[in-house]
Amino acid sequence: MELTVQDVAAWIETSNEKIQANKEYLTTLDQAIGDGDHGINMARGFQEATKKIAEQTYTSSAAVLQDTAMTLMSKVGGASGPLFGTAFLKLSTALKGSEPVDYKTFAGGLEEAVNGIKQRGKATEGEKTLLDVWSQLAAYFNRETGFDGEKMAEEAKSAMEQTKEMTATKGRASYFKERSIGHIDPGSASSSYIFEALADVIKGGK
Amino acid sequence: MELTVQDVAAWIETSNEKIQANKEYLTTLDQAIGDGDHGINMARGFQEATKKIAEQTYTSSAAVLQDTAMTLMSKVGGASGPLFGTAFLKLSTALKGSEPVDYKTFAGGLEEAVNGIKQRGKATEGEKTLLDVWSQLAAYFNRETGFDGEKMAEEAKSAMEQTKEMTATKGRASYFKERSIGHIDPGSASSSYIFEALADVIKGGK
Amino acid sequence: MKKIINDPNEVVQEMTKGMAVAHSEQLHQLPGTTVIARNDAPNENKVGIVSGGGSGHEPAHAGYVGKGMLDAAVAGEVFTSPTPDQILEAIKAVDGGAGVFLIVKNYTGDVLNFEMAAELAEAEDIRVEKVVVNDDVAVDDVSSRRGIAGTILVHKIAGAKAEQGGSLEDVKSTAEKVIENVRSMGMALKPCTVPAAGVPSFELAENEMEIGIGIHGESGIERKDISTADDIAKELTDKILGDFDFSGSDTAVMVNGLGSTPDMELYIVSNKVQAILTDNGIYVDKTFVGEYMTSLEMAGCSVTLLKLDDELKQLLNEPSNAMAFQG
Amino acid sequence: MKKIINDPNEVVQEMTKGMAVAHSEQLHQLPGTTVIARNDAPNENKVGIVSGGGSGHEPAHAGYVGKGMLDAAVAGEVFTSPTPDQILEAIKAVDGGAGVFLIVKNYTGDVLNFEMAAELAEAEDIRVEKVVVNDDVAVDDVSSRRGIAGTILVHKIAGAKAEQGGSLEDVKSTAEKVIENVRSMGMALKPCTVPAAGVPSFELAENEMEIGIGIHGESGIERKDISTADDIAKELTDKILGDFDFSGSDTAVMVNGLGSTPDMELYIVSNKVQAILTDNGIYVDKTFVGEYMTSLEMAGCSVTLLKLDDELKQLLNEPSNAMAFQG
Ligand SMILES: Nc1ncnc2c1ncn2[C@@H]1O[C@H](COP(=O)(O)OP(=O)(O)O)[C@@H](O)[C@H]1O
Ligand SMILES: Nc1ncnc2c1ncn2[C@@H]1O[C@H](COP(=O)(O)OP(=O)(O)O)[C@@H](O)[C@H]1O
Ligand SMILES: [Mg+2]
Ligand SMILES: [Mg+2]
Ligand SMILES: [Mg+2]
Ligand SMILES: [Mg+2]
């Protein structure tokens, strides 16, 4: 299968649904090892992104993702705003000109997104940040050859779960040092919802 | 009987004991219809007055009461400081030259104290203030002809109890208007302890 | 009781000492007292301005000691009026020959102690005049009205008048004009705890607020469910406007925090107050938002409105170098 | 949640609007943003100074907008860094041709968003430089140290330098000198509640305090039983003195309240801090006591120490008309 403009728009919409539904849970995660606003930030940003996309008719996936990126950048704030903004912007750029989006192009776009996050956040894998989910998903996409909703959702969940045992060395959670162990990283949780949303779209064959 | 210098010093000391023992109760009364500092204020003032008196040897009751007055004036603060200070100062002035103090002189001194309180506080009887206790005691002394600890203590207690049914129209309790009904006036309670202390001294024949 | 203190009975001494040390370039403490005075006091031929009252209302009153405002502030125990001997020391320290002016808040304790101090000063041949501030419209009976945040505007304007060389009578009549034209109204969400008492001075349920409360927790007009900032602003402002006719006037507005209310909330209230005043044809010349007259860590706010004429406007805008007053 | 607000999601908009209306003689809000700017901005050939960050730290940052300090402040959502587009608006509004200087607190969110804004501004041919303040010695790793109350001293000194006509490079190197020489350490007794969250951001038992906590409730060094003000002052000051050698130096001291700690308690702490510094042969040139960098209604305080040379001393003493800074 390939991703159509409608699929990509549905992805953002479904991400928003999941984030709204888990807004309080995300905030609780951020209260444990951060400042308790992650759910609020993400819910605000994805709400606006969904609204923006619903108001427009798009002819390219890249355009959907670019509007998503710009909205997240200007509405989320905090550490996660520029990082998610960068991730979607890099993905958008990589997808430009491919319509519908084939698997390989998307996998390459994810790699670009990961590089963008790394550069912006000066983080590497294992520092207990949203990068850990994006990076593991990019690697998974690189290993595989076609979209598989089931496996992708599993991969996202497991990547998120794995942050639980890590010691945070970036972002607010790093102030907790070893005490950050045992808590899921909030940004990884919301990243996992984003990939689960994509999995839903793929499974639904939308 | 007549009051000696030792009796008068014992009066202040016993007043202090009673006030210290009831410090929290007085504060509770003031929390209900005031600002919750009456016990603290009185305890601070009488502690200092007792200390001052203990440090000195006195040859006149008037001198004991004058030092009491000045100490209360400079250590109690709030509304009650100047009022108790004035009461003891007027009493002291009236007792000057009478040693030991006979009943009539003391009764006259109480009347002066009442006038002093009225003038300073611009209050009259029935406004639910410490004046109500001092005024009722002065009237009682005027009716009777000799010191009687038993009856005097009863009179003080009943005067204090009567403030419970009054509506406050002076001091902080007046902000509560009718809601001040049902609460004993804190300044009346501490005044009652002062007269009970005098009753103890008289009963003890000290 | 969660407080950063040492001995609950020494809080006032340690606070005044802390102030004097922190701001020694400008202020000092009179030895053996809790009086904070300007380093340049007494100023020859300038009327000395003294205020004070119970502690726990910081920055009132020592925060307003400085050029253009008070010459000295007398700090009593927490929520307890200072004693006449302390007030007398302040009066003596700031008398530069032109007399001393006392700004007293209308509480029995403050009035009695300042009155006695004035008598003692007069006995020492110092000319003393005073005003009693009663801006709190929560109390119906005008003679019983409490002095609350409006007091700070009296400090400012009387201080400026004295600094300009006004006589004792001038300062008094200007201060009286401020008092005639100033009204305040407050409310609280959470009580405070007097250190020596150790327990909150009153209780408010999780969903309750008290309208018209005094700055020591004295009873207000009504206890009811918490409403929005806009409703609260409206309730406080309406009560003030119902008491005094400000329509068509130039005014100064103060939105004052009682201790633990964030500036954020005060500005949200101020936002609505300004809108209400505009709707009522009242012009706002100057706005003060912040903690000016607190009640320890009480949560809540008060709104103050002062009608300005040209003299008051000019005096309000004079510079002041008091620590806690934004010129 | 006991707060005087309307809609928890509108607190920042209503606050900034309230500020602009209250202080319209001096400040205004950039339309469609939560940026507060000086009315006289941009000043031709003066370096524009911009700071900002999450809201909830009032008076930081908008309270420091004024002559001699900031040209504009950008308010993010509560405890959430502002976004690049808003910061860009501030930069554009204050650029008078001499470039714009950004003062950023060291939080990932603030750094990332200000960095992106700087890139956007450079794309529009505006010269931008920035510093990242990391004064909080509670964090061992220097690169992760948070920016807390010391930031205000950076605002003051960089602002004065720009006002004197310093170039973008001058302002930057002076600000860097402040950052090299400033250290802070805080503690909390009670948490605060973010309006949109509705519940306290952390819990502290009735008898507990947290040493080294951040201004958003980020974890500190140690949670333990509440001790006396003197012990707390000593713990905070010792940690600072252990991190940087202030001996023999002239310094500025700031004792900052986190939101609901009465001035009384801050002065009691200040009193002890001064004594400790004197014992250590450290000379205090200037002391600030009050709420400068808060954390909504958190209870607690921080101590900041800045080593002064002649330049810093002179710049610190320059006048400022910012609402929340006592010149
Ligand atoms: N340097 C970084 N690189 C990558 N991700 C980061 C970095 N710092 C923080 N994050 C992510 O951001 C999340 C926190 O986002 P959020 O709570 O919205 O912002 P803030 O920390 O500013 O309050 C963390 O859970 C983490 O996944
Ligand atoms: N005008 C007055 N005349 C006489 N007594 C008064 C007057 N005002 C107050 N009091 C007395 O003072 C008492 C309160 O004293 P206290 O609590 O020490 O002072 P404050 O009210 O200043 O806190 C009241 O209970 C009342 O008896
Ligand atoms: Mg967060
Ligand atoms: Mg009382
Ligand atoms: Mg009192
Ligand atoms: Mg945040």
TrEMBL record, chains A, B:
Residues 6-200 form the DhaL domain. Signal peptide: none annotated. One of its GO terms (molecular function) is phosphoenolpyruvate-glycerone phosphotransferase activity. SUPFAM superfamilies: DhaL-like. SMART domains: Dak2 (SM01120). Pfam families: Dak2. InterPro entries: DhaK_L_YcgS, DhaL_dom, DhaL_dom_sf, Dihydroxyacetone_Kinase. The keyword Cell division does not apply. Keywords: Glycerol metabolism, Kinase, Transferase. GO terms for cellular component: cytosol. Pathway: Polyol metabolism; glycerol degradation. GO terms for biological process: glycerol catabolic process. It catalyses: dihydroxyacetone + phosphoenolpyruvate = dihydroxyacetone phosphate + pyruvate. Its EC number is 2.7.1.121. It comes from the Bacteria. ADP-binding subunit of the dihydroxyacetone kinase, which is responsible for the phosphoenolpyruvate (PEP)-dependent phosphorylation of dihydroxyacetone. DhaL-ADP is converted to DhaL-ATP via a phosphoryl group transfer from DhaM and transmits it to dihydroxyacetone binds to DhaK. Homodimer. The dihydroxyacetone kinase complex is composed of a homodimer of DhaM, a homodimer of DhaK and the subunit DhaL. This is phosphoenolpyruvate--glycerone phosphotransferase. It comes from Lentibacillus kapialis.
TrEMBL record, chains C, D:
It comes from the Bacteria. Pfam families: Dak1. Transmembrane segments: none annotated. InterPro entries: DhaK_1, DhaK_dom, Dihydroxyacetone_Kinase, Polyprenyl_synt_CS. PROSITE patterns: DHAK, POLYPRENYL_SYNTHASE_1. Residues 7-325 form the DhaK domain. GO terms for cellular component: cytosol. Keywords: ATP-binding, Kinase, Nucleotide-binding, Transferase. One of its GO terms (molecular function) is glycerone kinase activity. NCBIfam families: dhaK1. This is Dihydroxyacetone kinase subunit DhaK. It comes from Lentibacillus kapialis. The lineage of its organism: Bacteria, Bacillati, Bacillota, Bacilli, Bacillales.
